């Protein structure tokens, strides 16, 4: 089989022009995003020397998703996703340049970093459900799983490159350069979105009232065992297992006595595993959804979070973060695909907004929870506890999911 045949079989989403335009723009933009994520976390910890305040910044950034995602989901199902996405990405670019300017002028403080984090939180509340529900328009529903996995691949490739670059840039040039590069990195994705032909118009033409449409989306989720339990698993994991942005800088500093470079490389290790996981999902997407693989990934993630809590060697921690990253992105990619494929076209924006609300809403809870525990009991003990909680949750949710599916099957037979 030649290279074209391999691409057509394993990466069919790339055959769609609109998806290629968006995907190639994201290849550059996401590196900048991860540079900003790393720069912001290390800057806040450097200014405050508090894991709780580091967690508070993360909580502030993700809190808007709790309040805005549901009503925004209705609007996403009513208006062209292309225009919404372009406007949001442009505002994110301006926010990155603003942060860079504040740091360069020496005006960066906890309060204005928190304010810009809040602005980014509002923009992300719009961006995430729009971007995710737009995938079916960019690559067709047939190739949706492949498109999601390829998107995850570049996201996690950037997770490798971005933190590594950010750690070095922060140490040698300061945080302002990290944020400035992120601002520049939005330019290719804005060009790509502008050239996309699909407008992302929804099949929902009822346009009754916002509350009624919100209830309709929530009702569908509650009646679908796969969607309901998937959202529960993703929300729980984001709250109690995947608090890496809060815990890894604390681990790098207090367990391994490292600097921003040590932190950046540990985040890169997570990205290496995540990249491998996303690439493997993309390459095997033609086999379709495999629920067992999804459940196994969540279990594997919790297990390696537990293991991270008992290691005291930097190299061992680096290796185990690769495994944690692999299971993390496998679980999230398969979960995203499950929710989208099980969602009717006219409700995908609303259902993905609920998904985004749970994901985003769980982060501030988890950030404050893990930040507080790290301050009180140490980061290693927090890793151990989070791993145990994750394994216990999976022992409950798997039989619960199975029982719901069986009950639905019996109802349909009647």
Structural write-up:
This protein has 414 residues and is mainly α. The protein has a single domain, classed as MFS general substrate transporter like domains (Growth Hormone, Chain: A, Up-down Bundle), CATH 1.20.1250.20. Helices cover 84% and strands 0% of the residues. Helix 3 packs antiparallel against helix 11, helix 5 packs antiparallel against helix 8 and helix 10 packs antiparallel against helix 14. It starts with a helix and ends with a helix. The mean pLDDT is 84.
Task: Give a brief outline of the structure.
The chain has helices spanning 3-10, 17-48, 51-62, 64-76, 81-104, 110-139, 144-173, 175-195, 210-223, 225-240, 244-254, 260-283, 291-308, 314-341, 348-377, 379-413. The protein is mainly α. The N and C termini lie far apart (48 Å).
Helix content: over 70%
Largest sheet: none
Give the assembly state of these chains: single chain
Strands, count: 0
Please identify which CATH superfamily we are dealing with.
Answer: MFS general substrate transporter like domains
Q: How big a fraction of the residues is strand?
A: under 5%
Q: How are helices and strands ordered from N to C?
A: HHHHHHHHHHHHHHHH
Unreliable segments (pLDDT under 50, ≥5 consecutive)?
Answer: none
Total domain count:
1
Structural class, from helix and strand content? mainly alpha
């Amino acid at each position: 089989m030649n290279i074209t045949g391999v691409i057509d079989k394993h990466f069919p989403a790339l055959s769609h022009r609109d998806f290629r335009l968006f995907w190639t723009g994201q290849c550059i933009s996401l590196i900048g995003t991860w540079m900003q994520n790393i720069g912001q976390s290390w800057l806040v910890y450097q200014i405050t020397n508090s894991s709780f305040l580091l967690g508070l910044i993360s909580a502030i950034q993700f809190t808007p998703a709790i309040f805005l995602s549901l009503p925004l989901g209705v609007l996403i199902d009513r208006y062209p996703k292309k225009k919404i996405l372009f406007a949001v990405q442009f505002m994110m670019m301006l926010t990155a340049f603003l942060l860079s300017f504040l740091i360069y002028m020496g005006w960066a403080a906890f309060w204005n970093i928190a304010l810009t984090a809040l602005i980014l939180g509002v923009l992300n509340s719009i961006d995430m459900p729009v971007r995710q529900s737009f995938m079916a328009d960019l690559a067709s529903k047939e190739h949706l799983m492949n498109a999601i996995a390829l998107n995850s691949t570049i996201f996690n490739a950037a997770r490798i490159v971005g933190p590594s670059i950010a750690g070095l840039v922060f140490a040698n040039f300061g945080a302002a350069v990290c944020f400035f590069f992120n601002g520049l990195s939005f330019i290719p994705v804005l060009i790509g979105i502008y050239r996309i032909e699909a407008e992302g118009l929804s099949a929902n033409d009822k346009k009754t009232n916002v509350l009624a449409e919100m209830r309709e989306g929530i009702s569908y989720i509650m009646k679908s065992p796969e969607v309901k339990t998937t959202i529960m698993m993703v929300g729980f994991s984001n709250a109690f297992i995947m608090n890496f942005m809060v815990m890894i800088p604390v681990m790098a500093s207090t367990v391994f006595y490292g600097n921003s470079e040590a932190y950046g490389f540990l985040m890169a290790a997570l990205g290496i595993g995540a990249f491998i996981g996303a690439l493997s999902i993309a390459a095997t997407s033609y086999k379709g959804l495999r629920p067992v693989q999804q459940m196994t990934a969540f279990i594997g993630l919790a297990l390696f979070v537990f293991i991270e809590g008992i290691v005291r060697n930097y190299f061992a921690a680096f290796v185990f973060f690769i495994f944690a990253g692999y299971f993390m992105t496998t679980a999230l990619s398969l979960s995203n695909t499950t929710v989208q494929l099980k969602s009717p076209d006219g409700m995908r924006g609303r259902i993905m907004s609920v998904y985004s609300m749970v994901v985003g809403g769980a982060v501030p809870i988890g950030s404050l929870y893990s930040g507080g525990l790290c301050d009180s009991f140490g980061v290693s003990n927090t890793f151990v506890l989070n791993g145990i909680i994750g394994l216990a949750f999976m022992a409950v949710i798997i039989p619960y999911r199975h029982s719901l599916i069986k009950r639905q099957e019996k109802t349909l037979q009647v």
